[in-house]
Amino acid sequence: MIQLPASKLPNVGTTIFSQMTQLANQHQAINLSQGFPDFLPDPELLNSVDYFIKKGFNQYAPLGGMMPLKEAIAEKLERSHQSSYHPDTEITVTAGGTQAIFTAIATFIQKDDEVIIFEPAYDCYEPTVELFGGIVKRFEMKAPDYSIDWNIVKGLISEKTKMIILNNPNNPSGKIFKENDIQELIKLVRNTSILILSDEVYENITFDGLDHLSVCRYPELKERSFLVASFGKLFHVTGWKTGYCAAPKALTDEFRKIHQFNVFCVNTPIQLALAEFMKNEEHYLYLNQFFQEKRDFLRKGLSQTSFGLLECEGTYFQALTYDKISDKNDFEFATELTIQHKVASVPFSAFYKNRLNENVIRLCFAKKEETLEQALEYLAKV
Question: Which of 34, 144, 300, 344 lies at a CB distance of 3.0 to 4.6 Å from 338, suitable for a disulfide?
Answer without folding.
Answer: 344
